[in-house]
Amino acid sequence: MERLQKVLAKAGIASRRKSEELIKAGRVKVNGEVVTRLGTKVDPVADKIEVDGKPVPAGEPKIYIMLNKPRGYVTTVSDPQGRNTVMDLVKDVPQRIYPVGRLDYDTEGLLLLTNDGDLAYALTHPRHEVEKTYLALVQGHPGEKALERLRSGVLLEDGWTSPAKVRLLRREKGNTWLEIKIHEGRNRQVRRMCDAVGHRVLRLKRTAVADLYLGNLRVGRYRSLTTKEIRKLKEIEKKVLDKS
To answer: Key word Plastid present in the record (predicted)?
Structure first.
């Protein structure tokens, strides 16, 4: 027997956190009865589990995909405004997958998509401190004082940021390329941090999540993760879930 939210996550319905929200919202049935209590134990083989009236498949193979997200796409499964979503770029993947975390509309780069709810939970929960690496083209030439503010933590409207790892890469035509590493996942965080020190972000690209690197994957293209890459991510997942 396993907890219902874990079964939903393993089946690729949503992350564990989102699965909990589905349960609390009364959208999940077990053997024809609505279940809203978190932690309810079920047998994923013997019990009939439904979400929004659709049966939850048991034993769906796990899919792990890296996408080089272009600018101009939202990181959601669907968009009420009719904008392009990252799912438009992986239409030929037969399994139901979903994005792990988010990149904003104007940000490009590495985005992981999967149906592995436990892994998604491990990589996105704020307290797990999984490092993300960005390349940021900022307006102007940040001085050492501005860089040190980023490294020490910046006060934003939702509180102080944790210290970031910041490296000046090069200057060009009145602008500067920075490498910024953070382990938080606040909305538009890198952009807001740079705004706070007086250097607006002109272009932003995520190049790594933990030990997973974008490399030379072309913009708008995706590929399956290698066995070695999956193993490294599962090591992170194990450490996180052991602490949970």
So the answer is: no
